[in-house]
Amino acid sequence: CPSTKQHFALEYDRYGDSYFVDTDLDQLKEVFAGIKKLS
Amino acid sequence: MEKTVSRICLASEPSIVHFLQVSWEKTLGSGFVITLTDGHSAWTGTVCESEISQEAVDMAMEKEKYVEELRRALTAGAEAPGAYKFSFSEESAQLSCDKNLQDVSFRLGSFSLDKVPNPSEVIRELICYCLDTITEKQAKNEHLQKENERLLRDWNDVQGRFEKCVSAKEALETDLYERFILVLNEKKTKIRSLHRLLNEGQELEKNTNLDR
Amino acid sequence: MEKTVSRICLASEPSIVHFLQVSWEKTLGSGFVITLTDGHSAWTGTVCESEISQEAVDMAMEKEKYVEELRRALTAGAEAPGAYKFSFSEESAQLSCDKNLQDVSFRLGSFSLDKVPNPSEVIRELICYCLDTITEKQAKNEHLQKENERLLRDWNDVQGRFEKCVSAKEALETDLYERFILVLNEKKTKIRSLHRLLNEGQELEKNTNLDR
Chain A contact for C1, CB < 8 A? Predict the structure, then answer.
């Protein structure tokens, strides 16, 4: 719903990578994989 | 000039191996010289193209096919035991060659030969030809062996480079991710601190408003 | 059993090529059978180990070295023209071999042979040995040729995989950087917007303070 969407928009960038939480190898790979789907 | 030497056994003397030397210029079908020897005597004869063509006509065979059959018969020798039957009569110095099929055999060719007055010369030439062929094949062997070794070295070399490349690719991926994570987390730290400042700022403003 | 056939020219008949067949069991030094033929007649003899040892002693040579010299002389034949001189006397059926050095030559060996009553048998055997050797070398050739083709295929295969790996590695690097830049720039956008908010907040606070 819009509020959840808005919450996520504040917490995550468009590729699903968190603005605040440090990333690690698995997470970054997952984000990159997501980008692959996007492109 | 092409030449072959093969072993044959004559129907009349199956226990004594004979040697058939056939030499020809461009193709067997353009005529050939055939020499028969038992290591002691020798007989030789020339078969010209017209005789070959005539023979093919008599056998109602296409000339190319006939020549191919002839070539196999005259050069296969012991490599095709039982496929052909050779008969030779010293009186008439007539060499004939029959092809054996399942239950029939048919005459493939018959050649008039002349006895060689000085057979040792022919025999020496035949042995020299064999020794030259051995030398030639040995040289080819050595060349192929060297080629083999070079190819094996090349293969090992590129296999090694390929394996290095695979591990370098894996290392690159790991290395890049590590760097990316460091840089990205730096930015996230920055975002968290700005966020904190912003929140503090907003808190302050709220309080200020309250004060006012 | 090891056997070699080589061409030699006798000092007495340089225009007629002769053939020297030497066969031995384990090593030449343990004794050998030597056969000489000109394609018409044949002579053969057996040289036993003790004679070889005695010859080495007479020449004050180490036996191994002497046997090596002998092997080279008796098997090199036409492959080493001029290196050795062979003499043969039909009367005594004595075959001798001298090694030619720059300006001297020394007797390497002398062998008593017996005339073979039925030379054609010996000559047939010699030709059969040559033909067998040709067949064997041809087979080895074909095997090496196939081996070569297989190695070449393998080389092409791994070369192709190596080239693919190199381009995959380059593509991986480009690809990862592209993705990383996208994700990183998101963070930078965020930082810019937080900065802007913070600046606006601070502006606002300044104004508020002024108001106050």
Answer: no
Interface test with A, best of C183, C184, C188, C190 (most A CBs within 10 A): C183
Residue A28 burial (CB < 10 Å; 0-12/13-18/19+)?
Answer: buried
DSSP letter assigned to residue C103: S
Stated pTM of the model: 0.82
Residue C100, phi then psi, degrees to nearest 5: -90, 125
The yes/no answer to whether this complex scores an ipTM above 0.95 is no
Q: How far apart are CA B196 and CA C99, in angstroms?
A: 102
- Sheet containing strand C42-48, edge to edge, reads C2-9, C17-24, C31-37, C42-48, C114-115
Judged by a CB distance cut-off of 8 A, whether residue C192 touches chain A is no
Judge contact between B67 and B52, C-beta under 8 A. yes
Q: Report how far residue B67's alpha carbon sits from residue B63's, in angstroms, rounded to the nearest whole number.
A: 6
**pLDDT per residue over B28-85, tens digit each?**
999 999 999 999 999 999 999 999 999 999 989 999 999 999 999 999 866 677 789 9
Q: How far is CA B136 from CA B174, C125, C135, in A?
A: 56, 21, 13
For the record, the structure tokens of C70 come out as 């002998």
Longest dimension (CA), chain C: 144
